[in-house]
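Much of our argument rests on the idea that a fold can be written as discrete symbols. The amino acid sequence and the backbone structure tokens for this protein are reproduced below:

___
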Amino acid sequence: MTTRPRALDLFGGEGLAALGYARAGFDVTTVEIDPERLAHHVTHPHVHVTQGDATTYPLDGFDLVAGSPPCTDHSEQAPLAAQARGGTAGTGWMLAHTLRRVRAWADSTGGLFVIENVEGAKPVMGSPLVLCGTMFGLADEGWYLERHRLFESNAALMAPGPHRCRTRALRGRIIGVYGDLTSNDRSCGGRRRPGGGLRAGVERARRLMGAPWASPRGLALGIPPAYTQYLGEQILTQLGGSLAAAA
């Protein structure tokens, strides 16, 4: 029986990213501190769930360390949200902290890492890869998912193709999954996107994201498993050489 490479998924949420890495071929340990999010976690034979603090969880013993630190203080709506609550969410430091941890771990072990966040986090990251749902053909009933996410990695990662969310062919057919999801699709003002700011309802969001088990919050915060499966397959190819050399 072939042993799968081991991946650690920090800030695992409801397991959307972990599922993609498991489908790619990893044995995934996902770490999440919030019991509510753990209650909605995906079930998969190669995804092992641990309740714990992702900011301090040990990184040793893994071939890949991935993670999605909280994005609230980096999102485009962060200033408005901070004004409404009277301050930031207090989690913005976790991205820089996690990047320092995984870079030091990679330097000392030769392991690979992938850290994800929203577009507003680019100043904190190095030279991240940008992925969008339109690159993967994520669509439902003619609506195409626009979901830009940044991925910082020490692996050589490539996108599957160009963004299509700004193309004339998809004009008026773009939809997002974000914020407070309701049962029906709805238009949201102030979003500068070709689809007029259309936000998917919960069931459409589940189909677009490829996450039928996820809660509305999990959908709003998660990464489509298609993204991490695609990245995981590239990383496995690179790890193949590293693991063979270490054998």
